[in-house]
Amino acid sequence: MSGFDTVVIVDWSAGKRAPKRPTKDAIWIGIARGSGEEEPLYFRSRIEAEAWITHFLQTENAAGRRVLMGFDFPFGYPRGTARAVTGSNDVFALWTWLESRIRDDDAGENNRFDVAEEMNRCFEGLGPFWGKPSRDMWPDVPYRKAGIAFERIAERRSADVRANAASSCFQLAFPPTVGSQVLMGLPMLARLRRLPGVAVWPFDAWDDAQTVLAEIWPGLIEPAVRQALDAADPPIRDREQVRLLARAVAGLTPDRLAVMMQDFPEEAREEAWILGAGHAEELRALAGPVPLAPPPLRNDCFSLPAGVDWTPVDEALALLRTRLTCTVGSEVVDIGAAQGRVLAQDVIAVRSNPPQANSAVDGYGFAGGVPEGDHVLPLIEGRAAAGVPFDGAVPSGHAIRILTGAALPEGVDTVLLEEDVASDGQRIAFRGPLKMGANARRAGEDVVEGATALRAGRVVTAADLALLAAVGVSRVMVRHRLRVAILSTGDELVEPGQAAGPGQIFDANRPMLLGMIRAFGFQPVDMGRVADDRAALRARLESAARQADVILTSGGASAGDEDHVSALLRETGAMQEWRIAVKPGRPLALGLWSGTPVFGLPGNPVAAMVCTLIFAHPAMALLAGAAWQAPQGFDLPAAFEKRKKPGRREYLRARVRDGRAEVFKSEGSGRISGLSWAEGLVEIGDGERHIRPGDMVRFIPYGSFGL
Ligand code: AMP
Ligand code: MG
């Protein structure tokens, strides 16, 4: 079966005309196409909604798009109901019976209780329908359920039991009024079914139908809906239900959807079935849970313990790690767009890898291992190839030609390597022993369906894309990209390409930092340069705070006369000067500007880059929703000599040649060429050290810092 281009979910209503302003308990329609989602539509009356649906199906049809349209009310009644009313078990006979009786108008005035009375009179004794707005009307519909036996006719269908739905399609009043929705919904379905190309699942043949109508139930994804409601504004349950269900169903691969559409018991032919009943877990994973909108950072998130003079690097990192939390929302994207993005929720395998046992080699398949010695087996006709399974069983004592990746046919658990076999086309001869299961891959030996394939907080890699695809995941919930504003400060700076006068230098930090942000997978926001002028800087920070989730400034972060970044942040009261025992490095000014975190980096390009790698990158990763990641380094013999005083950590520009760590010829902090020469940093611990050539040192490649 091919997939659907468009998934539409309809939340029906039995009520009167709904108010102008969108509310719950009205008609809501959610639409999802591929990776795109539309804002759910609101309808005030059934007549308007049906007109829209009819027109929509015609338009989609004309555009050649296949539509799966789900409705949230039962398409059938418990076994025996249809026969009692129409004399036939045929569900469509009941639909037409209702269509010819139910009347509705644009105000929502309808005769459903009269029709329910007529249905109840078709049963001996008390009929199954109950519940009405007034005790004095419709004598053949009891006000309460008490007294109805539900013996010959069950109160709930098999599907309701399977899906754990408490509601009954016989209940016409008092929420949930599922019964009223069925009466007001089936006549519409009867009309839609007459449109060209429309099939109703699971009654009609649906494989090649242009439009398939199916019963669905939002209760299957209730936890996701509840979570989405907490974040929705205004919180309208029906709107979130159709939005999330459309997203979930559209997120299923054609294979998984086909499995769900084939999964119903015999009684569904009369009672209808809920698409996805028994697969709630899988739908829920695709629907959400939508992560909550993250809370803002606390004002004191950058405060330092009092009385400490120089903070060791590890303490500074531990503080950032405990204080900072994710500040960005999330969205669902196709895996094709997921590389470099941060997963917002755990990803569950919806299919095992491999999905079925298959051959690891080209050769011959048979059952069981064999002992030492020479063996001959007759070959059966046919073969098994990847994607073209052998349709049948291999009798014991026989072998079959099999190719790499082919599903093991019934009766095969072991594969002989082609090179170890002599064959005349009729038989194969080979030498034992061979263990049972040799050269075969077990179903799920890599990943089992339902297992967590990847954890929330992971930054998706190219290899992860292979894993996601293999386990049947086509869409994932990821964090919005962290927007990082970059701003250079200093009267001496000019733009590369402009004329530089005496005393002026080119702004080197901004292109470097913008590039680093891009390499980290964040979204750079270029805020340009600002002179050492407090009013101008204030205005620029204000604008950056509106456009970005975090601000990186360079220059002006110390405590001097022209250090306006630290001065301005100090005014806000949410600034801290972090004096970290690190070289290269100057004090970092950390603070919040209008609630947006600011990293005031030193102006010196070497210090700016090292501080970004060591402190700003892991901090920004947390803000972006990623898990904390300490950079991975490895120990190598040094190709240099160095004496280091105790009391601070040092990072040297370094690279690896012939298995040894070389460092740049100068530690001068203005030497930008050394940053470019280097391929990583050598990290030397806080204590005193005398390193001689051949001593082990820790090398951390730029890549480990996310570059
Ligand atoms: P500051 O932190 O503002 O005192 O600057 C420290 C040193 O870094 C000074 O020599 C500045 O000229 C230099 N500097 C500041 N910003 C930049 C920049 N964007 N590009 C290159 N050098 C810079
Ligand atoms: Mg400056």
Descriptive account of the structure:
By secondary structure, the protein is α/β, with parallel strands linked by helices. The protein folds into 6 domains: 6-73 and 194-287; 81-187, no CATH class; 330-352 and 447-479, Molybdopterin biosynthesis moea protein, domain 2, CATH 3.90.105.10; 358-441, Molybdopterin biosynthesis moeA protein, domain 3 (Beta Complex), CATH 2.170.190.11; 483-623, MoaB/Mog-like domain (Molybdenum Cofactor Biosythetic Enzyme, Chain A, 3-Layer(aba) Sandwich), CATH 3.40.980; 634-705, Beta-clip (Beta Barrel), CATH 2.40.340. Helices cover 27% and strands 23% of the residues. The protein is built from 18 helices and 35 strands. Strands 1, 2, 3, 4, 5, 6 and 7 form a 7-stranded mixed beta sheet that branches. The chain has a 6-stranded mixed beta sheet with strand order 14-11-13-12-16-15, with no helix packed on it. Helix 7 (222-231) crosses helix 8 (237-251), helix 8 (237-251) crosses helix 11 (280-287) and helix 12 packs parallel to helix 17 (605-623). The longest helix has 19 residues, at 605-623. It is flat. It starts with 5 loop residues before the first strand and ends in a 6-residue tail after the last strand. The mean pLDDT is 92. The structure holds adenosine monophosphate (AMP) and magnesium ion. Residues 489-490, 555-556, 562, 603 line the site of magnesium ion.
